[in-house]
Design brief:
Distance between the termini: 70 Å
Number of strands: 0
Radius of gyration: 27 Å
Mean pLDDT: 85
Helix content: 40-55%
Order of helices and strands: HHHH
Strand content: under 5%
Oligomer: single chain
């Protein structure tokens, strides 16, 4: 047993005011899928004690966790004889 659904325009009595096709808001196209050009997001899964130690260290040194991670990556690159982050990006850490 199927019944015809009542439309909103019939209930409100605004049949003439409602367009027959809904309008869809247009979004501007995003380039590269990133809000920060030239940067890529990378997720790191840290064991909870490692995360907590990093968080405490950043707090004690009044630095961002991201800055400490970048410093660590720079040391890894240096140990392996690769170019530093400054050499790669042209910006100091």
């Amino acid at each position: 047993m199927s019944r015809k659904r009542t439309s909103l325009s019939a209930v409100l009595g605004t049949a003439g005011d409602v367009p027959s096709t809904p309008t869809i808001a247009q979004r501007p196209p995003q380039r590269g899928g990133s809000r920060r050009p030239g940067l890529k997001q990378q997720t790191a899964y840290l064991p909870e004690p490692v995360y907590e130690q990093l968080r405490v260290l950043a707090f004690e040194e009044r630095r961002k966790m991201h800055d400490l991670l970048m410093e660590g990556l720079d040391l890894v690159f240096k140990q392996r004889g690769l170019r530093s982050i400054e050499e790669l990006t042209g910006r100091p850490l």
